[in-house]
Amino acid sequence: MGAEFVALSLPPILIGSLAALACALPGNFLLLRRQALIGDAISHVVLPGIVVGFLLTGTVSTWPMLLGAAAAALVAVGAIQLIQRIGRIEPGAAMGVVFTTLFAAGVLLLEQSDTSNVHLDVQHALYGNLESLIWIDATGWQSLLDPEALAWMPPELIRMALVCLIVMAFIGLLWRPLAISTFDEGFARTLGIPATLLGLALVTVSAIAAVAAFDAVGSIIVIAMFICPPATARLMTDRLAVQVALSAVFALVSAVVGYVLAGYGPIWLGYADAVSAAGMIATVSGLLLAAAALVGPRRRGQSA
Amino acid sequence: MIDIGYNATLVAIGAGLLGIAAGVIGAFLYLRKRSLVSDAISHATLPGVALAFLVMVALGGDGRNLVALLAGAALSALAGLGVVHWLNQRTRLGEDAAIGAVLSVFFGFGVVLLTVIQTIGAGRQAGLETFLLGSTAGMLRADAWVIAAGGALSLLACTILRRPMTMVSFDPEYAATQGLNPARVDMAMMALALAVTVVGLKIVGLILIVALLILPAVAARFWTERSEVVALLAGLFGGVSGTAGAVISSLAPDLPTGPIIVLVAAAVFIASLLLAPQRGVMAGALEWLRFRHRVHMRQGLLALAHGHTVYEPYTMRLLRGAGLIRADGVATEKGRAHAARAALDERRWQHLRSRSENAALAARYDGLTPVETWLTPDQIATLDREMTGSGGAA
Predict the structure, then answer these.
(1) Secondary structure percentages of chain A, helix, strand, coil, to 5
(2) Where are the transmembrane segments (chain B) (predicted)?
(3) Where are the domains of chain A?
(4) Best residue in A220, A243, A257, A285 for a mutation probing chain B (most B CBs within 10 Å)
């Protein structure tokens, strides 16, 4: 079990967990600011971004595509703001306008360009391929201490860890201003906190997390993790710090349990093949949310 | 006439009818600020499609019956809609969080089911993926008929429910006094959005169908303030997008139907954003230019009246262009007359504003509008007499 587990299952579980964490943490603030669907919008517009990145460079290399995705995310956030302001359109509809249009453009570009010989398609963008992020050089647990084998870890793991650190640093360093401006923007301004700038920074950090996680695990996990773990935690507590900590726990549980169920569940039931890990992780996070919505101590809001 | 074949014609007609229905329903959703609920509905169809396929296969069929697949889609979309409603009503979570949770979890579960289908019978699932992005290529004739009929039926239901939906989206409280139950009308609206979504799955796909419910409605909102006109226009835009998109995509092999329809709708939206009178970007820019023109003209004339020289280049250009000053900046005959009139108008305003009984009128002072706009010649004559009277007394 050891060698196979370390080579085939440990990297996807770690990457999935880091991706879940990177999305769930900023998701807490987006949820409280009623911007929960920003993650949804960003993960849709990533598609045209990577397609343009691919068309400009002609190769499926990571950095141009990541840069393209990040650029698309920023363009989308700007366009949503712009349409909202100049057209006086409510935020939800403005978001819907922008992400569907950009996604449609992405699909069309993809169909029009010759991508038949490269691994780039809509399904991949949606589901990711968590299962393929394997560590071939690992021979067992001892490989974790072997620098030569460590050098061949999937690059997604290091990238995701880095992004996770950035997200945690952002939230840790700016905890107080973030919390104050999330609950009462007017009060934050009187304290001299640049609330608008901070809101923009939060969206940018979320976009970075979404783009990195999308690259590793596909957009389903991104959308689910931005919303479900924070929403679950919100139904459990009134305190922000507890909520953020709980959301991290729920994200990790979803990632690990979801992956294990997807990979080993069918085998336990006597089938040969695994099912989609990304889909299963989203499903588990949904079950957690359902449980909290049914019995969570703070599901109704202020209690007496 | 472009010959696109019998099936493609049926699909184009179906897409047109569907587009009209989606536009109208979308307009009401937009006016009720619930556009994105349709995104949850559409993503929630996936597990239903997959389950319907599994049930059909378990019963010994090949799992491709479109009506059965769409029925499954409708059932799970209904479940998703129910969960959104329940989360929003019974917990402290907002509607946006409920929408996001339902769309990601239902979609994720649907993807799990798709991989289950792949496992139990490789190759046989071919076709279910087309529900993601829509595909009309190689569609069966019976399926094309299902879509055309579905589009027609949704449109019919829209027409029947037009009145109550207009009233509720315009003013729910007034509608309630008229014997309507806003909650029930809202539910009917959601049911219609669900019907449009399900019928549109095969053409536009579940990821992009939400665009047909949002883009035409938002575009229509630019042109008018009246809700029933918004709905009519949105229907028109949706119908044009659906038909044009389906026809364009049938002309070449690499043009996927769903994205083309969405991009046509997006083009209509961008045109509305730029060109609409009053709310459009161009109208706004023109209004700003006109305002700037009036401010500079007025300030230039007042400067001339007080014997100052105008140095500001834009004002000089304006005055020169109207023949009010000479090239060296000195006022012409006409310029002096205009300047005197502007100065008189300013004095009349100042007099008006100095008197407390004129507060209502004084509030209209913007430094631009001549006093004649608000007063009759008789009133102005009285005003002038008062001014000379008070001037004489001083």
Answers:
(1) 80, 0, 20
(2) 6-31, 43-60, 66-87, 99-122, 142-161, 230-252, 258-276
(3) 2-130+150-293
(4) A220
Please report the pLDDT score of residue A258 as a whole number.
Answer: 94
ipTM of the complex: 0.91
Q: Is the pLDDT of residue B390 over 70?
A: no
Cα separations (Å) of A54 from A50, A62, A75, A202? 6, 9, 18, 28
Amino acid (1-letter code) at residue B351: H
Q: Which residue of A has its CA nearest to B206?
A: A100
Cβ atoms A257, A283 nearer than 8 A? no
Radius of gyration of the CA atoms of chain A, in A: 20
- Asked if A87 and B35 come within 8 Å (Cβ–Cβ), the reply is no
Q: How many CA atoms lie within 13 A of A78 on its CB side?
A: 6
Number of Cα atoms under 13 Å in the Cβ half of residue B370: 13
Tokens encoding A192: 């001299």
Q: Residue A68 is encoded by which pair of tokens?
A: 């393209």
Interatomic CA distance for residues B195 and B78, integer angstroms: 10
Which among A214, A235, A239 has a CA at the least distance from the CA of A224? A214
Locate the chain A residue with the closest alpha carbon to B281: A86
* pLDDT value at B126 more than 70: no
Task: Give B118's contacts in chain A (Cβ within 8 Å).
Answer: 273
Give the phi and the psi of residue A174 in degrees, each rounded to 5.
-105, 25
Among B355, B373, B309, which Cα is nearest to B335's? B309
Helix axes B45-58, B95-120, angle to 10 degrees: 30
**Tell me: domain A2-130+150-293, CATH 1.10.3470.10, correct?**
yes
Q: Chain B closest CA to A300's CA: distance in Å?
A: 5
Domains and CATH numbers, chain B: 6-276 (1.10.3470.10), 282-393 (no CATH)
Of B33, B32, B27, B39, the C-alpha closest to B219 is: B27
**B273 contacts in A (CB within 8 Å)?**
83, 86-87
Type and span of the H or E element at A11? helix A10-32
Q: Which of B150, B46, B144 is nearest to B104 (CA)?
A: B46
Q: Whole-prediction pTM value?
A: 0.85
Reported for A269-274, long-range contacts at CB under 8 A and 24+ positions apart, including other chains, are: A271/B119, A272/B119, A273/B115, A273/B118, A273/B119, A274/A131, A274/B115
Which residue in A160, A170, A197, A200 sits closest to A66, CA to CA?
A160
Convert the pLDDT of each residue in A20-47 to its tens digit. Answer: 999 999 999 999 988 888 888 888 888 8
Decide if B96 and A88 are in contact by the 8 Å CB cutoff: no
The per-residue pLDDT for B393 is 43
Query: Could you give the CA distance from residue B256 to residue B323 in angstroms, rounded to a whole number?
Result: 60
- Residue from the list A89, A280, A299 with its beta carbon closest to the beta carbon of B91: A299
